[in-house]
Amino acid sequence: MKRVTLILLLFSLATGSLNAQALSGNVLDTHPMHWARYYARNIFDRNLVYCPIWNIGLVTDSNLSPGQGLEWPGSEGLRYGSYFVFYIGTKVTDMSQFEGKVVPEQWDGTEIKIVSDAYMPHTSVHSVAQTSTDKTHQQVWAPIPGYFNDGVYGFIEGINEDTDGDGELSPAEDVNLNGSLDLALDPPPVIIKSLAISTDKRTWPKWWPGGSYIGDERPDHMEEVRQPRTVLPGLRVGRWNGEYKAAPIADQETLYRMDDHENDAWNDYREGMYWPLKNSDGTPDTRDWKDGGVAGSGIEVEGRTYAWFHPLAEDLLVSVYRVRNYSDYILNRVVTGMWADANIVQGDYNAASFIKAQYDYEGGGGRLDFDILYQWHQFPEQLSTYKKVGTFAFAFLESPGIAYNQKDDDYDDLIDESMEDGIDNDNDWVPFADVGLDKLGPGDEGYKGPDADGTEGNGRWDTEDTNLNGALDKGEDQNQNNKLDMEPIRDDRGTDGIGPDENGWLGPDPNGTEANGIMDLGEPNFDLTDIDEADQAGLKHIYVYESRKDLKDDRGFWELYLEREAEDVVESDEDIVFTFGARAVKLDTMEWARFTIALVMGEDQDDAIRNKATMQRIYNANYQFLTPPLQPTVVSNVGDKSVQLYWDTDAEMSKDPFFGEDFNGYRVYKSTNPQFLDIKKVSDAFGNVLLFKPLAIFDKQDGLKGPHPIPFPNLGAHYDMGKDVGLKHSYLDTLVDNGRTYYYAVTSIDAGNDWDFYERGLVSEDYPMEAMPSESPFSITVNPLGEVVYRDRNTAVCIPVEPAAGYVDPFVDSLKISHVSGWTRGGRWNIDIFNKLHAKLGHEYELTFTDDHWLDNLTPQYEWGSTTGIRCMNLTTGDTLFNYKYDNNYEFVQNAFREIERGVFEGLHFDFGWRMAYSGGNDNDRGIRVIKENEYGRETPEWKRWITNTKSNLRCERIEVVSPGEYLPFDFEIRVEDHVGVDTSVSPSFLIPSYPLNFTTWNVTDPNNPHQMKVQIRYDKYKSGDIPEEMYGQIWDSTRVLITFPNHEGIDKTSYTLRFHKNSFDSLAPVIPPSPGDIYLFRTERNPTRHDTLRFVIEGGEWNREDAKEEIRNIYVVPDPYVVGNDFESIYELAGYSQRRVDFVNLPPKATISVFTASGKLVTKIDHESSVDFGRCSWDLTSEDGPEIAFGMYFFVVETEGLGTFRGKFAVIK
Fold this sequence. Notes:
Layout: E1 41-44, E2 51-54, E3 58-59, E4 70-72, E5 78-81, E6 83-93, E7 111-116, E8 142-143, H1 221-225, E9 252-259, E10 299-307, E11 316-325, E12 331-341, E13 350-355, E14 359-360, E15 366-367, E16 371-377, E17 391-398, E18 539-546, H2 554-562, E19 566-569, E20 576-582, E21 585-587, E22 592-602, H3 605-620, E23 634-639, E24 642-647, E25 663-671, E26 680-683, E27 689-692, E28 696-699, E29 730-733, E30 742-750, E31 780-782, E32 788-791, E33 795-798, E34 818-821, E35 828-833, E36 844-851, E37 867-874, E38 880-885, H4 889-901, E39 908-913, E40 928-930, E41 954-961, E42 972-976, E43 983-984, E44 996-997, E45 999-1003, E46 1011-1019, H5 1021-1024, E47 1039-1046, E48 1052-1062, E49 1079-1082, E50 1084-1086, E51 1093-1097, H6 1105-1111, E52 1116-1118, E53 1122-1123, E54 1133-1134, E55 1137-1138, E56 1142-1145, E57 1150-1157, E58 1162-1169, E59 1176-1179, E60 1192-1199, E61 1205-1213
Parallel strand pairs: 18-19, 53-61
Antiparallel strand pairs: 1-2, 2-3, 4-5, 6-7, 6-12, 8-9, 9-10, 10-11, 11-22, 12-20, 12-21, 13-16, 14-15, 16-17, 17-22, 18-20, 23-24, 24-29, 25-28, 25-30, 26-27, 30-33, 31-32, 34-51, 35-39, 36-37, 36-51, 37-38, 40-50, 41-48, 42-45, 42-49, 43-44, 45-46, 46-47, 47-48, 52-56, 54-55, 56-59, 57-58, ...
């Protein structure tokens, strides 16, 4: 037998406690084997089930400080749970007779009942729950250190932000948003240590303990040294240590481990002795736990909790417990369970109903649904709350497997299947498909034979990604379809569980397990990652009873609830609790078993049942659910009554495990509540609130718009996919009040999937499943004072404010962009100051362009082309900010705008765009568009009319380019003269006659140098009827005028066709042709070319004393009058009192404010000193003596240095 050696590492400790009272009297706080100092906690706030998780098997604080329970919906909801305690009961046999002797394989003796848990129903100065008789420790689960960032002076420090190793900080690397490159992140600044959580990298350890994931070749801390510290980094440095892969599978996850080495509570009964470990000679290791022995039964537990942001799963929380017997003896009777006190708002008058799971006993389909307990309040209308009281449900998902009794315990037609036998018991693992880069093989629809490039059937996995970086780089797109093509990897993803079609892929697994055609541990649907491969024991202990805090009595709890397998639900008006326990199983040494529960919330029982169906779907997929795109990184700037948001484009490269590249757009949310509850207004068909209402939607121009074709299942609601407006990466909000706090979030959303989405190019993988869209999560965490303690990288907290008197923020006036040369018109030319500290005040910049000369190649008459490059230069310094050049206009449009918009150049942010679709209905990639809209972007009939005051009832009803015509980037006029013969039309063939004309056509793009054009004229006689002979050569009803231009061979080519018709309102009136002097004009928007040069200057950014003297006249108080409370105050309270506040506005950088009563008595004096971009000072309405002021009229005097004095008044109404 192996000898377990305990290495006691002595090191300095940062002693942090979960509760000063809870650990008072424990004299071993700094002992290396006393792990209570590693208690850690974190809050699950990713969805509506808001509750803490502790690394000692607790869901909710369960009577530990600060006493947070389960709240729903969100942190401002009602309380639905006080205690959720995971426990393990074991029966072992007294071995006191073998002290100093070799222990046999089997022996007789007194049974010892051990229950390991962290149940602490009471803590006080004089008494701490489950404290040992010698007051040295608590006899509860002990958290295993090394699974969270304990700080530089703790057990293990945090991760390194420099993920790419270049020594510089990028916005995506700035985890703690402090603008500095941290080589070891500090943990969150909280009193209780922070449990590692997937959504906050500050909580992750520098590297994970050895043996904590599949494929980790470092020593397992439990098998060899039981001390988890290691100096070997391992393969998951800086990555989330997920259960199914080296990344999260849910939107929020936790991970911890705990064991029972300090749980000697059973020894208080003096029933015998039990030592879980052996010495190398086979004798019991009888050392005390403080000396390296183990006091409990030798159980280790890995705890994980999962939550999803998706609206379908926002009412769910799943806790998974993997149990390992690390002792040297078989444990013949092990019961895993959960004890809970779920109080619906209050403890009394709760009712519960238990529904047993259904099995397919005849068909071998296994379990059809879950064991579930519903709990509700019997008299919700009598509770002192205006909020709707919902329903709580507790679902039992997984129980330990039994792989030794030759029975089909879960009725799935598999006997003694196991998650650790190296067999794909249910035959659902699938290797990569060796079908070639077209991803079609024999039997697939559309298959035409082996790939011409030889990639099909060559025995290796093929991909266009030659450098294996997960992105489509230049030169890799072999078939020119603008997609990264690869053979389907399926389940053959290697031991890290991540394949090239997923986010977070860093290349093939170094051990060669990826795409090798062989089942390897860590890959989906095989052994430890396939929950169907366990012959689950099922739920056998179900008791609902009146609370009596009996979990603290190991022996009594065993005898009452674990000794027998039964179901008992009492009805009582008193506080009820319940315990769920799995059927007792046998655990071999170093064998794992699983126990999983889910907390399910609903607005009523029907809603909870619908949520239960979602939970079933998640369970069937090994706890994977619809995967949203990556979160964009948001940066914000505030100004005077404005908030500017910017975000990156990383989300657009997201990959879904089912549908591949399926990104569709962004949504901007704005709220005055950190949980955005005031904008959660979109409800389902049942009236239940479901979605947040976005401030703006920016979606791809891909035809997916309006209601999504796939609704929320059984809810009658559809996602709004936008209006095909195109992607943007910035948003300017001017509907804000200075001084008020606003919370913003920018989310990314995918396309979901329908039967034709692959053919339409909306997704890159053809997967036969309908799916509604998935949206990336967002979260902002505030403390009880309303201060932001953490926010996701796709959120921003902004307080717009006026600058100081005399100061204007640096800016670029888009209306003052000088068009030095060229004829470009239209498009989007937004230039903003992204970082005013980096803006170069007074500097002049120049934009120049390159084009593809396509029009030069058609005609010698013009020099013009579609844009292929853009350069920005600082003319003041001669520096080039950017210079993007591409081979053609398509590549330019696809790449340049994105590259420019995602960058910041000398503090400037550019948002350009001028891909203009032809408004006649045909797509036009030439960068030309006929203008048919007004200045607000709305189509008007103005373009149809003559620009002169004509009496004609003819107008141009349509402008089009008929193939093989070409678009021309010019403005044109038709001028009607006083006689026929001023010009002659062009005849393209003998079928179309040439006419002398009474009008001329001009290219008036350069008004100083107009150029006459040749035209064809045609009459649609079958529409216009008989045309008077004298009207030939003139514009009549149903006349077509075709503008032409010569090619290099002198042959006329057509461009725009103008169709003139009689006004439909004058259908019965005779035709009135245009008169001499009438002019018709139409204009085009066109992209910039090599002839265009634009210049702009950065203005403002300086404080001006003379301007300040004028602007201090505008000092005022807001709000005025002050009434009880105002919108600028925090919604949170300080020491039980709301934070009163008024602001003095438009102050200079330095001033003294004196406030007086109406009688002239000084109330307070405030010294104001701020930066030039902040012109506001807050006052808490307290006098210099401390108490709040009374209602009435107050006067104030603002004194400045050299700027003068200002006097004003305001009113306070209490």
